[in-house]
Design a protein that fits this description.
Radius of gyration: 16 Å
Structural class: alpha+beta
Strand content: 5-15%
CATH superfamily: Glutaredoxin
Number of strands: 4
Distance between the termini: 9 Å
Number of helices: 9
CATH topology: Glutaredoxin
CATH architecture: 3-Layer(aba) Sandwich
Oligomer: single chain
CATH class: Alpha Beta
Length: 199
């Protein structure tokens, strides 16, 4: 059975636009998924990238056009300049880590709820109430918002180190069995094709 390490950022518009398509592909092929939320700005700095606001104006303009096009393509509404971006991604990431440990809910739905709150609902995903609502909507205990903060912080930092060591440089970034890399929500079809080739 294939295994996917899923490096993600809860403030990433591309993670939002991925929806739950990767999860559907993983289920189709019986692949397991390990969610590894990380500090995307830290990842950019470690791997030669720049945060969006520091990129050349040409790149910033293209990014906005591409987000608009991809939003229309996948049928998900997206505010190109959300009110709470960039929010502090750590609290929502810690909650996701706690939810993965606890089990019993839908992690893909949780990621999508958090990113949707930022990119489509004008909500601050650093706020406990927003995170709690996302947890409960995905079938988790809302009290996980305050659970395992220290271990969550440790895993969050470790995920960044793991991402760099594994060859990731953006989000969403999917790595199959430690070797095959797929960067971006627009590579989920390629991920599907690759997983099909393994069976």
């Amino acid at each position: 059975m294939a295994h996917i390490d899923y490096y993600l950022a809860t403030i990433s518009p591309s993670v939002y636009l991925a929806g739950t398509r990767m999860e559907a592909v993983a289920a189709k092929h019986g692949a397991s998924v390990n969610y590894k939320p990380l500090d995307i700005m830290g990842l950019f700095g470690r791997t030669g990238g720049l945060p969006p606001g520091q990129r050349h104006e040409n790149r910033q303009a293209y990014r906005l056009q591409e987000l608009r096009r991809q939003s229309a393509k996948v049928g998900l509404p997206l505010n190109l300049k959300p009110m709470f971006f960039p929010a502090n991604p750590a609290p929502s990431s810690y909650a996701l880590i706690a939810a993965q440990r606890a089990g019993g809910g839908d992690l893909g739905a949780l990621v999508h709820a958090l990113t949707r709150a930022c990119w489509a609902q004008e909500r601050n995903i650093a706020e406990d109430d927003v995170i709690r609502e996302a947890l409960e909507g995905a079938g988790f205990d809302g009290n996980l918002v305050n659970s395992g903060m220290l271990s969550g912080a440790e895993d969050y930092a470790r995920n960044l180190e793991d991402a760099v060591a594994a060859g990731a440089f953006g989000a969403p970034f999917y790595i199959v069995d430690g070797t095959e890399h797929f960067w971006g929500q627009d590579r989920i079809e390629d991920l599907d094709t690759y997983l099909a080739s393994l069976s």
